[in-house]
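Q: Got a minute? One more chain.
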Amino acid sequence: MTIDFRAERFGPCRKFGPTFERVSDKHEGVIFAKAHTEAQRELAQAFEITSIPTLVIVRERAAIYRQAGACRRAGLDDLTNQARSLDNEVRASSTATDKNQ
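A: Always. Here it is, folded:
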């Protein structure tokens, strides 16, 4: 899951929005979520968000990547691909473990 912590009233968040949307449209099967920090204060506090926009990638209930500030489309696309490859590695490792038991 990729979470964009944001507040619509801030220019950098509005500017990053279309980039986040384009990348999310490209990656089927990956969850992209927008968390509006003013409406979802408890969630923002749980992830210790201190500046916005902040991008957080979560796998298995753990944040594996965090970046404050907007990123470019190519960068977000690359991060998404890297996170997906982690999923593939975990599945392959899990399958190998199951076969050995």
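A: The chain has a mean pLDDT of 87.
Q: Perfect, thanks.
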